[in-house]
Amino acid sequence: MLTETFDLPSKNKGTANFVAYYQAYFTSYTKKDQRVLSASLSKFKAYLQEAYGTERLAFKDVTPKLVLGFKDYLESKLTGEGPPTYYSRFKKVVKHVASGRTCFLSTRCLRT
Predict the structure, then answer these.
(1) By its UniProt entry, which Gene3D superfamilies does this protein fall under (predicted)?
(2) Is the pTM higher than 0.85?
(3) Distance between CA 59 and CA 19 in Å, rounded?
(4) N or C end of the chain, less CB within 10 A?
(5) Residue 71 burial by Cβ neighbours in a 10 Å radius (0-12, 13-18, 19+)
(6) Is residue 52 within 8 Å of residue 96, measured between CB atoms?
């Protein structure tokens, strides 16, 4: 069902900023596809701005509907290998959150 939420852990009961987490994940990311992750973050911010009028998103608002909406947004704006590549990097961040491996982030970062 598209109105469900993912069970993403958060010390702030879902009100922490997912975009700040995404940015911190990118900042600490050291693999060769760092530029692709950066572009994926930029596209996600553009999607949030266009669809919701903001670049801030609480963890609790990361829903299947939002995720599929981002995928559709990518497919409508880009062609070729761009949409699946950016979407896979976005999913990597969501899976990282869901796994609970958030030790590189400080609580201060999540509140901004």
Answers:
(1) 1.10.150.130
(2) no
(3) 9
(4) N
(5) middle
(6) no
> Which residues are CB-contacts of 91 (< 8 A; sequence separation ≥ 6)?
67
* DSSP H or E segment with residue 45: helix 34-52
Write out pLDDT tens, residues 52-83: 999 999 888 888 899 999 999 999 999 999 99
- For residue 11, the one-letter residue type is K
Contacts of residue 106, Cβ cutoff 8 Å, sequence gap at least 6 = none
Structure tokens at 10: 């958060």
Please provide residue 17's backbone torsions phi and psi, each rounded to the nearest 5 degrees.
-85, 110
The token duo for 110 is 């999540």
Token pair 């963890």 in the structure block, residue: 59
Q: What is the dihedral of CA 58, 64, 101, 33, to 10 degrees?
A: -100
